[in-house]
Amino acid sequence: MLDRDEGEESAYDKLNRLIGLDIVKKQIESIIATDIVEKERKKRKGRDYQSGSMHMIFAGNPGSAKTTVAKLFAGIAKERGILKSSAIVERGGMDLSGFGCVVAIREAFLAAKGGVLFIDEAYSMTSDTAVAVLIQEMENHRDEVIVILAGYNERMKDFLKINEGLKSRIPHWIDFPDYTANELTEIFKLMISERG
Questions:
Q1: What averages of pLDDT result for each successive group of 10 residues across the chain (196 residues)?
Q2: Going by C-beta distance under 8 Å and a sequence separation of 6 or more, which residues neighbour residue 22?
Q3: Predicted pLDDT of residue 78
Q4: What is the Cα–Cα distance from 114 to 145, expressed in whole angstroms?
Q5: Taking a C-beta distance cutoff of 8 angstroms, is the pair 130, 101 a contact?
Q6: With helix as H, strand as E and coil as C, how does 90-137 read?
Q7: Phi, then psi, of 115 in degrees rounded to 5
Q8: So what's the pLDDT on residue 5?
Q9: If DSSP states are collapsed to H, E and C, what string results for 127-186?
Q10: Which of 112, 158, 172, 175 could make an SS bond with 117 (beta carbons 3.0 to 4.6 A apart)?
């Protein structure tokens, strides 16, 4: 663990303490393991080896903890040496579309340098220019920014069809299931307890 005070709970522990989300936790584990393998391959094969990107899609309904997990993932990535910073820059798809989208997207990547760029409702990026610039920046900054695109499941699938380049640059798709009634009850009890 690289940047925590002793006794402070790690982002990894916080993730594992979240109620439910077992599938999500397993996939995050797998992504971290993949990065360890990629780093080892690069070490053995040298500079010529082009490691894969870690960009991902978080798909699920509102309230399924996508933003919370993105923030924790940024912390985990910093703790594990995947990223230089645990910073997370949040943008909405609408913020990065339309007039001025080129500048807005480039500024978002600059702000997220070394950390995570989280784009909620990414399918709101409806202009071809915005999507093309997003793809270009994802490629240009693949070693220094991890992009997480988030939104409703079906709408994210449709968004990926807009441009073939999107699918090829986003290797990880994480489905966020809705909470069960029991899990919601546990969350409610925890909220009551935290508020005394």
A1: 62 94 95 86 78 90 95 94 93 92 96 96 93 95 94 95 90 96 94 93
A2: none
A3: 93
A4: 6
A5: yes
A6: EEEHHHHCCCCHHHHHHHHHHHCCCCEEEEECHHHCCCHHHHHHHHHH
A7: -135, -140
A8: 53
A9: CHHHHHHHHHHHHHCCCCCEEEEEECHHHHHHHHCCCHHHHHHCCEEEEECCCCHHHHHH
A10: 112
Is residue 95 within 8 Å of 123, Cβ to Cβ? Answer: no
pLDDT computed for residue 36 by the predictor: 84
Distance from C-alpha of 194 to C-alpha of 180, rounded to nearest angstrom: 21
Model pTM score: 0.90
Q: Which residue has the tokens 């807009």?
A: 162
Rounded to an integer, what distance in angstroms lies between the CA atom of residue 115 and that of residue 111?
9
Sheet with 116-120, strands from edge to edge, namely 88-92, 116-120, 146-151, 56-60, 172-176
Contact 47, 92 (CB under 8 A): no
Smallest Cα–Cα separation from 133: which of 160, 161, 94, 103? 103
Q: Pairing mode, if any, of strands 172-176 and 146-151? A: unpaired
- 9 DSSP 8-state letter: P
